[in-house]
Design a protein that fits this description.
The chain is about 45% helix and about 10% strand. Helix 2 packs across helix 3 and helix 4 runs antiparallel to helix 7.
């Protein structure tokens, strides 16, 4: 199998409109050299079998605006491989992937951005057990119930 760094570079180079290393790095909020690390096959480049999931999702969102199928980028993180390749998805993951594949590129980009928001802790760990959620204007509103214990 071709190294992931080479496959990532090939995807970026096949983008239309074209996108340079500098441009994609700026869109990802990283330095040119930080992005280049993932495309580099030399001794100091990226050597893992798969890209980190968060990085692949962000790259997929950027390259989707340049005509690259996000599934092709996510495959570099091991998503979408068949079971014989060692990856398997749960029924819920398969359902999410099915939804994602049916979306337009704009919808996919928004979906990935939403996923990034859900990946962030919503409630501090010390109050997770005493939290509630309500819906206001069609949006979830999470609130922690702070109960201070007073010592006598």
């Amino acid at each position: 199998m071709e190294p992931v760094a080479r496959r990532l570079k090939t995807l970026r180079n096949s983008a239309s409109p074209s996108i340079t290393v500098r441009q994609i790095a700026e869109k990802l909020g990283m330095s040119r050299s930080a992005y280049h690390f993932y495309e580099s096959e030399n001794e100091t480049g990226f050597k893992q079998r798969f890209l980190p999931m968060d990085f692949a999702r962000r790259v997929a969102a950027v390259l989707a605006d340049h005509g690259i199928n996000p599934d092709d980028v996510l495959a570099l993180a091991g998503i979408g491989l068949d079971e014989s390749a060692g990856a398997s998805l749960s029924a819920g993951e398969e359902q999410l992937l099915s939804y994602f594949r049916s979306m337009s590129p704009d919808q996919r980009r928004l979906y990935l951005q939403l996923g990034d928001q859900f990946a962030q802790p919503i409630i501090p760990a010390d109050v997770v057990g005493s939290a509630s959620a309500t819906v206001h204007d069609g949006r979830p509103d999470f609130q922690a119930k702070h109960e201070k214990q007073v010592s006598a």
